[in-house]
Amino acid sequence: MLTYTIEYCVIFVLLLVTAYVVPAGLFHYFFFTRCSTATEAMRIQKRRPSSQDIRREIRQSVSALLLFSAYCLIVYHAARNGATALYFEFAQRPWWWAAAGFAALVVLHDIYFYTTHRLMHLPPLFKTVHAGHHRSLTPTPWSILSFQPLETISQFGFFALVIFFVPLHPATLLAYLLFDGLVNAAGHCGHEFVAPASQQHRLLKYLNAVTHHDLHHTRFRYNFGQYFNILDRLFGTFLDRPAA
Ligand SMILES: [Zn+2]
Ligand SMILES: [Zn+2]
Q1: How far is 140 from 151, CA to CA, in rounded Å?
Q2: Closest alpha carbon to 54 in 31, 38, 72, 74
Q3: 148 C-alpha to center of ligand 1: Å?
């Protein structure tokens, strides 16, 4: 029992740092601690988040991580027993496998996120699953994991699927968690730092800018995608507001 408790604590701290404190802290530092006239000009909404909003986002995010850590402990033991698709020696696969695995995670996660996110917005599910995240009308980087328990299960369900079906090295998974956290923190930082030229570029315009997810927090019915807005464009849920 003591071993499980220690393992759980190690996993929780690892996730807290990698998936939350580092990404959210970095964007908080750049846009809220070191705010200047330049960062003020990038601010998307006039409304400012209150310290009460931020405290709620942190509380909900830490609760989500406590639940996710329990799930990771189960996965850790499944991996030790060889029940997952994870591999542990880099030499077991070609050199490009880790990069391909990372790219596959980005694409698969975007599809999973769009689909589950749209489902969560259906009236019978919204209140019990996703309304907690939308309490942040003016999101801050600390809201990236601010989920109700049912949303936590859905959000982290993606990792449950890939761990058992996609052969990945744990380092690829950890690097992806950090990348995902950074992109998510960018999407919730409330400041548009993506240059207008990139937002209008014929290929780069398919990547979400900060404004897109920020608009999702105020308009609810648009911009469900995580990294790309291709599915939003295809299914008529894309709302763009290019920087002037
Ligand atoms: Zn959000
Ligand atoms: Zn939503």
Answers
A1: 19
A2: 31
A3: 13
Cα 221 to middle of ligand 1, angstroms: 13
CB 156 within 8 A of CB 70: no
pTM: 0.91
Alpha-carbon distance values, 209 to 26, 103, 120, 134, 215 (Å): 18, 19, 22, 19, 10
Q: Provide the H-helix boundaries in 31-169.
A: 37-42, 51-80, 97-120, 123-129, 149-165
Local structure of 43: helix, strand or coil: strand
**Residue 91: pLDDT band by 50, 70, 90 thresholds?**
confident
The pair of three-digit structure tokens given for residue 122, joined into one six-digit string: 């259906």
Tens of pLDDT, residue by residue over 114-138, are 999 999 999 999 999 999 999 999 9
Q: How far is the CA of 131 from the centre of ligand 2 (A)?
A: 8
